[in-house]
Amino acid sequence: MINKLKMLGEYVQKNEGDNNSFNLNNTLESANVIVLNFFLDENDCYFKEIDIYEYDKAKREKVLLIKDVKGNKVSSFPTVFIDAKGIDKSLKKLNRILKVCKLINPKLSSLSHLFNKDYLDWVKSLDDAEVNDQQGSLFEKKSYNYLNKISDFVSQDNSNLCTIHINGEYVGDSKYFQPIKENYLTSIDKDYYEKYSTISLGERIHCYTCGCVAKKLYGFCSTFKFYSANETAYIAGGFQKNKTWKNYPVCPTCANYLRLAKEKLNGNLNRYFYGNKYFLIPTPTLDRGDFYENLKDIEEDFRDIALSKKEESNQQLRNELEEDIFETLASQKDQATFTFFFYKASNSEFKILQEAEDILPSRFQKIIDAKKKVENFDEFLNLRGLYKKGESHNLSFNFGIIKTFFPSSFNNDFLDITTKILKDQKISKTFITHQISEHLAKGFRNEALYHDIEKAMIFLKILYELNLIEHTKGKMEIKMENKYEDYFKNHPEFYDADWKKAVFLTGVLAQNVMDIQYQNRNATPFRSRLNGLKLDSRAIKRLLPESIEKLEQYKSNYYYELEESIAKLMESGEPELKQQSVDEISFYFAIGMNLNKQFKSKKETEGENNE
Ligand SMILES: [Zn+2]
Questions:
Q1: How far apart are CA 558 and CA 520, in angstroms?
Q2: Mapping DSSP to helix (H, G, I), strand (E, B) and coil, where does residue 444 land?
Q3: Which residue from 465, 318, 277 is spatially nearest to 401, judged by alpha carbons?
Q4: pLDDT at position 572 over 60
Q5: Are the beta carbons of 220 and 232 closer than 8 angstroms?
Q6: Would you say residue 163 has pLDDT above 90?
Q7: Measured between alpha carbons, how far is 501 from 485 in angstroms, rounded to an integer?
Q8: Residue closest to 219 by CA, chosen among 255, 187, 257
Q9: 535 or 140: which carries more pLDDT confidence?
Q10: N or C terminus: fewer CB in 10 A for the chain?
Q11: How far is the CA of 259 from the centre of ligand 1 (A)?
Q12: What is the rounded CA–CA span in Å between residue 307 and residue 264?
């Protein structure tokens, strides 16, 4: 991964240059900037007026808003975020920043004085009468006004920045801040080798990333906290922090590449995925001059297709976004590979959850093709209430469907399956079937199966189509020519054993019984015979005679053909059925229950209705 980042950083450097050497805030797109204008020369320093202007990202070097200044750290330049309620706090921040600035450039001392707490308190204590007094200096009056008026300039519906202007120049342009800028640039690499007051610098050894021998190598180059010197040091170098360069030495060039790569990822290639976050890391397959063009395209496309947590419940949108992402990646024609880096970041911890490495665009195309193929089956078309009550929609496959069966508490499994699908790796069918049938049984008990059976089917169909789960073909001796067989032929990957057909059809029959019960009694007591949808071979066997008995009882046995088919299939499939798990049996039974209507002839339906 670190090599991929380095490569990405190199392309960025080559094509974009290092356009952010001040490590400025990259994410801010718009803001209201409150500018405090000051006059400053050898003898005098005073406040002039307040201006506002619209933040322009392209001109951010003017205000030098440095990103990621957290907690008690002091930014290097006097531009801060501000809100109407926290103006005092923001002024305090500016005060602290200017105090450091004046140490580097003493010419800023008088400006720093104007942000002094004592001074600000004194100005604030003035009242209108004192300010209007002819004796008071113009400067004090103005200072009084500015402290009381900042809040008037704060925008309610945009972010607010507060910065200063000296003699008509922004911080970034002002000669007064030139020494501070220079100081910043020389110290920026410090983070890579100085931490906890410890210096970790190596000399003339090989760079961990590029292998070159450099004059100096940094020991704390932690691109992501996971790769921080801390972790590797604990493993190999104990707690001797000053020796971390021995474990993970990075040359200044690589440190810069890694920083640029990280910025690129955080910019447009950082995405939300069903409760997880991931970075999409594009890597050229060969050293290609035109890779940067691809990168730009991907970035551009990715910008518009971000799924946010808020939108996660909108399944239609989810489908569209996933399709767009896959199509975007598939269109790259194997000039690049993609790594999905699922991670979890909280405070100082950065945890890798899963890494789906080096996926070729053709793989995405394969998944798209499989998706299109399975989505065409009748079972998935026009499902009423799929997305909205009272409306019909077609079911399509997306990774959210996997999440249905592997919810948050199974997040690692969810990501594991996702990764395996992306990487074309085999998945354990037993494991998947178990989870699906647990979910279906729970839904059955709560009478809340919201098209989950169709979702399970489409999920398995995709896995079969992509050849990711094994086929467990069994004995197939019974030849039938009826509507049931027509259905089985449509889904050969599901119905490749007599016992599977038998169980499926028993599910159809059981649901028919319940439909008739419901017609007659407005209740379905037969449900209690289904063991909460946890069925073994014995339960399946007893359900055939029990169903027939019930149907006779209601004088509604319209299903001789079905019963006969079950009996034949059962006889042939029974030895194998006995060896099957409850999970797999219950799954086939549930599909049967779900699809019973599909097989009812007009006569049968009428018969039921006439009862
Ligand atoms: Zn290097």
A1: 15
A2: helix
A3: 318
A4: yes
A5: no
A6: yes
A7: 9
A8: 255
A9: 535
A10: C
A11: 13
A12: 18
The alpha carbon dihedral of 261, 329, 300, 403 has a sign of negative
CA–centroid distance, 261 to ligand 1, in Å, is 14
In whole angstroms, what separates CA 213 from the centre of its chain? 38
Mean pLDDT for the chain overall: 85
- Which tokens is 261 given? 């790569």
Q: In sequence order, what DSSP letters do the residues of 576-609 get, joined into one string?
A: HHTTS-HHHHHHHHHHHHHHGGGG--HHHHHHHH
Distances (CA, A) of 53 to 79, 154, 161, 490: 14, 11, 10, 66
Taking a 5 Å cut-off on Cβ, the residues next to ion ligand 1 are 207, 209-210, 251, 254
Q: Region 290-305: what's the mean pLDDT?
A: 79
Name the burial class of residue 260, with classes exposed (0-12), middle (13-18) and buried (19+) by CB atoms within 10 angstroms of its CB: buried
Count CA atoms within 13 Å of residue 529 on its CB side: 22
Q: How many CA atoms lie within 13 A of 417 on its CB side?
A: 25
Residue whose pair of structure tokens reads 């551009």 in the numeric block? 300
Would you say residue 431 has pLDDT above 50? yes
Instruction: Please say if the pLDDT value at position 236 is more than 60.
Output: no
Amino acid at 470: E
Is 590:453 a contact under the CB 8 Å cutoff?
A: yes
Which residues, 6+ apart, have CB-to-CB distance to 20 below 8 Å? 26, 260, 263
244 C-alpha to center of ligand 1: Å? 16
Give 218 Cα–ligand 1 centroid separation in angstroms: 10
Domain boundaries, the chain: 2-21+189-261, 32-186, 269-391, 471-610
Distance 200 CA to ligand 1 centre (A): 16
d(CA 268, CA 368): 23
What separation in Å is there between the alpha carbon of 214 and the centre of ligand 1?
A: 8
pTM as predicted: 0.74
Query: Which residues are paired to 393 by β-bridges?
Result: 383
Contacts (Cβ under 8 Å, ≥6 apart) of 264: 8, 9, 12, 299
Give mean pLDDT, residues 49-61: 86
H or E element in which residue 406 lies = none
User: Could you count the other beta carbons within 10 Å of the beta carbon of residue 197?
Assistant: 6
Q: Which of 381, 476, 463, 473 is nearest to 422 (CA)?
A: 463
Rounded average pLDDT over 176-204:
81
Tokens representing 407? 């919810």
CA of 213 from ligand 1 middle (Å) equals 8
Q: What pLDDT band is residue 16 in, cutting at 50, 70 and 90?
A: confident
How many other β-carbons are positioned within 10 Å of the β-carbon of residue 434?
Answer: 17
| HEC sequence for 251-309 | CHHHHHHHHHHHHHHHHHCEEEECCEEEEEEEEECCCCCCHHHHHHHHHHHHHHCCCCH
How far, in Å, from the CA of 192 to the mean position of ligand 1?
Answer: 13
Report strand pairing: 160-166 vs 32-40: parallel
- Rg (C-alpha) for the chain, rounded Å, is 34
At a CB cut-off of 8 Å and minimum separation 6, what does 75 contact?
Answer: 66, 69, 93, 97
Contact 274, 412 (CB under 8 A): no
At residue 606, the pLDDT reads: 67
Collapsed DSSP state (helix, strand, coil) of residue 42: coil
